Amino acid sequence: MSGHREFETSIHTDLKRQESYAGYLRLDLLLAAQEPRSVEHDEMLFIIQHQTSELWMKLMLHELDAATAFVRNDNLEASFKIFARIGQIQRMLFEAWSVLETMTPSEYLKFRDALGRSSGFQSFQYRAIEFGLGNKDRQALRPHAHDVELHGWLEKRLNQPSVYDEFLRYLGRHGHAIPASHLERDWSLPYEASPEVMSVFAAIYDAPEQHWDAYEMAEKLIDVEERFQLWRFRHMKTVQRIIGFKKGTGGSSGVTFLEQALKLTFFPELWDVRTELKPPTAP
User: Which DSSP category does 208 fall into?
Assistant: First the structure.
C-alpha cells in the first residue's frame, strides 16, 4: 500500500471565499473571536471551552423552540426526534467540562483577573434555555439591563409558555383534566405544582398503552431535565475543583450559588408521580 494519495483532478481549487468551506462557515469570524486578555497559555482553553458551549446552547435553543412549536400544534411525535437530538447536544455540553478540568487552580489564577466581572451566570442563551424549560425568574433579566435589545429578547421569552406549559395545554385540549389555572396564566411567573396535574400524570402512567404519546412525551421531558441537572452538577464540581469556595467573578457566592440550582425542578409532577404510583391490581 502506498503512503501517497493522488490529488484528484476533479477537486475544485478555484474557489471564491463565499463558495469555500471556510467561507460557508465564516471561519474568518469564528477563528478570530478568541482574544485572550493575558499572555497565559491556558486562557485560550478557557475561552474556547465557553465559546463552543455557547454554540451548542444556540443549537439547543433552536431545537427546543422547534419542539415547543410542535407541541403547541398538537404534533408530539414530531418533537420526539428533536428531543433525541437535544439529548446529544446536552451530552456534548456535559463532556466539555472534562476539557476545562485539565486546567489546575494555579493555571487559572494566572489569568482570572483578566475576566473582570464577566461570568457564565451572564450567559443570555443559558437563561433563554432555562426560560424555555420553565425556570422563570424576572430577576435573572437584571444582568442584561444594559443591552436594551437583548433584554427585550429575553423578556419576550420570559413571557412565553415553557415547553412544559405547552404540554399541559396539549393535555387539556385532548380531554385531560388540567386545571384552568395551568392553561392560562402569567407565564412569566414560576410554575406551581398542582395536585390535579399530578392526578393526570398518574392516570397516564397507570395506563401508558392508552396514552402512549403523552406517556412518551413525559419521559422525553424527564430525560431533558435529568441531563440538565447532571450538567449543572458537573459545572458545580468543575468550579469547586478549580476555585474551591471563592466568590465567582460575577459576584455570586460561587459553588454555594451553583449548589442551589440543583434544587430547582422544571417538571415537578413528572418527578413526584413516581412516588405516588402503585403496582397494578391483579386480575
Answer: G
To the question of pTM greater than 0.90 for the whole model, the response is: yes
Which stretch of DSSP H or E encloses residue 104? none
Alpha helices in the chain (DSSP H): 21-24, 27-30, 43-72, 76-100, 105-109, 124-133, 148-158, 163-173, 195-206, 212-243, 255-261, 268-276
**Cell digits of residue 276:** 405516588
Closest Cα partner for 176 from 116, 218, 220? 218
- Distances in Å between the Cα of 245 and the Cα atoms of 115, 233, 248 are 18, 15, 9
**Cα–Cα distance, 155 to 140 (Å, whole number):** 10
Cα distance from N-terminal residue to C-terminal residue, the chain: 69
Contacts of residue 194, Cβ cutoff 8 Å, sequence gap at least 6: 179, 181, 182, 269
CA-CA distance, 64 to 85, in Å (whole number)?
A: 10
Nearest alpha-carbon partner for 113 in 40, 8, 216: 40
Query: Would you write out the chain's pLDDT as a tens digit for each of its 283 residues?
Result: 567 888 888 888 888 766 889 988 999 999 999 999 999 999 999 999 999 999 999 999 999 999 999 999 999 999 999 999 999 999 999 999 999 999 999 999 999 999 999 999 899 999 999 999 999 999 999 999 999 999 999 999 999 999 999 999 999 999 999 999 999 999 999 999 999 999 999 999 999 999 999 999 999 999 999 999 999 999 999 999 999 999 999 999 999 999 999 999 999 999 999 999 988 775 5
